Amino acid sequence: MIACDFFSKTVFTLRGPRTAYVLMFIHLGSRRVFCSAPTYTPDSAWTTQQARNTLMWCAEHGITPDFLIRDADTKFSVNFDTVWASEAARVIQILHRAPDANAFAESFIGTIKRECLGFFVCFSRSQLDYILRTWVRHYNFERPHRGRDIGNNVLLVNFRPARDGPITRKRALGGIITSYSRDAA
To answer: For labeling, which of 47, 135, 140, 166 is most exposed (least CB within 10 Å)?
Structure first.
């Protein structure tokens, strides 16, 4: 099952502030996320292309979508639903003004805004795209998730301390993402 939703971030350009939109998809079984590249004009053609991109991402990660949960946003066209139906995924449209019905997507959007995007002022779509790709890679492969038995190897940690070797710190996004590890001696 996959859930999707839009979120936005203000980008300050030479022409003034503009709103960039991102379409995110989260696989509920593994909590893995795919975010589209940001756009200023999220029309139905762009949204349909993001559905195709997401299905390619699903194939790369061995995810077979059976259901897609989405809201009643007008940007989701018949073509968007047709792309998912072509992969035998049933599209479930939640009721208007019922964000709790899409809780996984809403939770991720809150997380990325609180833990990442709230710390940055963006000046271009490419900068926002870089921030999103870096943070989503961290979210998918490094960040521990609370769920059990979700196929996330981040939870399989060796808790035996390594006795030798220096501790190294890896930072990304100016220190927003920080991880520590002990190098083997």
So the answer is: 166
